[in-house]
Design goal:
The protein has two helices and 27 strands. By secondary structure, the chain is mainly β. It is an enzyme of class 3 (hydrolase).
Length: 357
């Protein structure tokens, strides 16, 4: 599901980079009230939005969830729960269970990462319960590392090989991240949020990424995806069947990748992809491989913000307590602010309700 629940919203397409963006209806600038929303900008290219950008925006309904009551002692880590404090209901993610120790990563900066029993929250939830945030689906951010390249980047939406035999010992295609907050210069992926474009805050680099792509090929492919992390390079390998009549999709994430040094990735080039050398022999020299829909997303990474009190950490949750966090890390009010939650404050688990138009 989306990383945050939102009320009524508007969807627009950036007139500069054509990236789709969902904006909370309350954040949209108006002619009579341009401030304080003058910082509302495209997450992808940094273009500042004006009231006129929203004239043709389509309206989206508010998210709706259903709540299933459950004995709080049967809850699992990572579930979305309905929880009450100060007479208000909230939807939060359950990350700390009774008996867990909550601490802060001593190696992190002034927005320290939150650890549960010594592990990063996002690593504890991964990969099945990790919420994802879109980073980029811009084909122009992908570059072949070889010159001349045996890959051809289409001006529309895909990469293809000129000759499948060429790519059996193939070159890497790397994702080069461009920071919209720094005039599009190369930079690491930051923990920016589509819904928070008007929130002034410190951004931090993220290193738990996902790649989605679709492949069409006359022959079976071994696909390698390399990821950069501060702890070292990681390599995801998968075998895709021949699919000349349609596309086969691939989802790769850093947690399903094994440690592997000397990959062509770095903080600013965090993902690379190639067809591995042991791909099965193609029958003809004219066989084509096409890669479509290259899309980068990131995990939600859980940190304290600068205004949070860090003096209470570390602490251990009692047998009646849990620790809940919101996926909208910059602005969520959760256990970072109100402390541990008593289990009796949890009404049940939340499930997003699919809405039809
Ligand atoms: Zn844009």
């Amino acid at each position: 599901m989306a990383p945050t629940l939102i009320g009524s919203a508007r969807q627009i397409v950036c007139s500069h980079c054509e990236h789709p963006l969902t904006v909370d209806a309350d954040s949209i600038p108006t002619d009579s009230m341009p401030a304080p929303n003058s910082t509302l900008a495209c997450l992808h290219c940094g273009k500042r939005f004006m009231p006129s950008d929203f004239e043709n925006a389509s309206a989206l309904p508010a998210d709706v969830v259903t709540v299933t009551t459950i004995d709080p002692r049967q809850l699992s880590r990572g579930e979305l729960v309905a929880v009450t404090w100060e007479d208000q209901q909230h939807v939060k993610r359950l990350v700390g269970l009774p008996g867990d120790t909550v601490s802060l990563d001593p190696a992190s900066d002034d927005r320290p990462r939150i650890l549960i029993n010594g592990q990063r929250v996002e690593d504890l939830l991964a990969p099945t319960q990790s919420p994802r945030v879109d980073v980029s689906s811009d084909l122009m951010r992908w570059h072949s590392l070889a010159l001349p390249s045996s890959w051809l980047r289409s001006t529309s939406n895909h990469w293809s090989s000129k000759n499948a035999l060429d790519i059996r010992e193939s070159e890497w295609i790397v994702y080069r991240h461009q920071d919209p907050h720094n005039a599009g210069r190369d930079g690491p992926v930051l923990d920016d949020y589509p819904m928070n474009t008007s929130v002034r805050r410190k951004l931090s680099p993220v290193d738990r990424l996902w790649l989605d792509a679709s492949f069409r090929s006359d022959f079976a492919l071994n696909v390698q995806v390399a990821f950069w992390t501060p702890e070292g390079h990681r390599l995801h390998e998968s075998h895709l069947p021949a699919s000349s009549s349609g596309f086969t999709t691939l989802t790769a994430c850093v947690w399903d990748a094994a440690a592997s040094e000397n990959q062509p990735v770095s903080a600013n080039l965090p993902i690379a992809i190639r067809i591995a050398g042991d791909t099965e022999t193609s029958d003809t020299e004219t066989s084509e491989v096409t890669i479509e829909g290259l899309s980068v997303s990131r995990s939600v990474e859980y940190r304290l913000n600068r205004h949070h009190d860090r003096s209470r950490y570390p602490f251990t949750l009692s047998e009646n307590e849990c620790f809940v966090l919101g996926d909208n890390v910059p602005i969520s009010v959760d256990s970072r602010t109100v402390g541990p939650i008593h289990l009796r404050s949890i009404q049940g688990t939340c499930h997003p309700l699919a809405l039809t138009e």
